Amino acid sequence: MNTDSLANTPEPPYYAVIFTSKRTDVGSGYAEMAARMMALASRQPGFLGVETSHDDQIGITASYWKDEKSIHAWKEQADHQEAQRLGKENWYEDYFIRVAKVERAVELTAEAV
Amino acid sequence: MNTDSLANTPEPPYYAVIFTSKRTDVGSGYAEMAARMMALASRQPGFLGVETSHDDQIGITASYWKDEKSIHAWKEQADHQEAQRLGKENWYEDYFIRVAKVERAVELTAEAV
């Protein structure tokens, strides 16, 4: 699971889950769980890629999926459900989850969005 | 321009621009330009909010917009065009820009995506 590079997603359309969070001061267990969930997500059907960045204030994880069905299955996955519960209780002061349909994408060398 | 909190976006639908980048080793001028562009974007018509996170490897900025027209206008804005040119030349080893229509969103206390 490579988390220090960008996701080589296919041509749109596909779906993005934009998970943005503001952390609490509770650090215990977070990094291990985050790594475990990234590895687990990457083995789910319909997973296309993930990009994540965390600084002192804000964490953003964008994961990419073939369709809404695969997003739903990932949301319901048992270990992920437990991680969501722990996240709400311990690690997140605030978060947003936005589900969006990617319509267009460009990489570096392209001239126009 | 508050960049250490999450974006209080309205109810979907609206649009997201997911800008993910892998930086070069060139740091000069980057932070100032990034701050200037965030401030400038926030004054554009149709701007709904922005969230950004940068770590050693990856930067992710998710900006939210009322519609595709406002995204297009921001892309064409003159100072932003110059920033895009400098970014390609100096600061970004690789980047993706993904334009996506946000269909659903939940905040912390909600039970389901």
What does this structure look like?
Two copies of one chain form a homodimer. With 113 residues, chain A is of the alpha+beta class. Chain A has one domain: Alpha-Beta Plaits (2-Layer Sandwich), CATH 3.30.70. Chain A is built from three helices and four strands; from the N terminus they run E-H-E-E-H-H-E. Chain A has helices at residues 30-41, 68-76, 78-91; strands spanning 14-23, 47-54, 58-65, 92-107. Chain A has a four-stranded antiparallel beta sheet. In chain A, a hairpin with a 3-residue loop joins strand 2 (47-54) and strand 3. In chain A, helix 1 (30-41) packs antiparallel against helix 3 (78-91). The radius of gyration of chain A is 14 Å and the shape is globular. The two termini of chain A are 28 Å apart. The A-B interface holds A 3-7, 9, 12, 16-18, 20-22, 51-55, 57-60, 62, 71, 75, 88, 92, 94-108, 113 and B 3-7, 9, 12, 16-18, 20-22, 51-55, 57-60, 62, 71, 75, 88, 92, 94-108, 112-113.
Topology at a glance:
The structure is a homodimer of 113-residue chains.
Chain A: E1 14-23, H1 30-41, E2 47-54, E3 58-65, H2 68-76, H3 78-91, E4 92-107
Antiparallel strand pairs in A: 1-3, 1-4, 2-3
Helix pairs in contact in A: 1-3
Strand content of chain A: 35-45%
Instruction: Tell me about the largest β-sheet of chain A.
Output: 4 strands, antiparallel
Enumerate how many helices of chain A there are, as a single number. 3
Assign the CATH class of chain A: Alpha Beta
Oligomer description = homodimer
Q: According to CATH, what is the topology of chain A? A: Alpha-Beta Plaits
Give a count of the beta strands of chain A, DSSP E runs of length 2 or more. Answer: 4
Summed up, the domain count of chain A is 1
Outline the low-pLDDT stretches of chain A.
Answer: none
- Biggest contact: A-B, 43 and 44 residues
Radius of gyration computed on alpha carbons of chain A: 14 Å
Give the strand order of the largest sheet of chain A, numbering strands 1, 2, ... along the chain: 2-3-1-4
Q: What is the average of the pLDDT values of chain A?
A: 90
* Coarse morphology of chain A: globular
Order of helices and strands of chain A: EHEEHHE
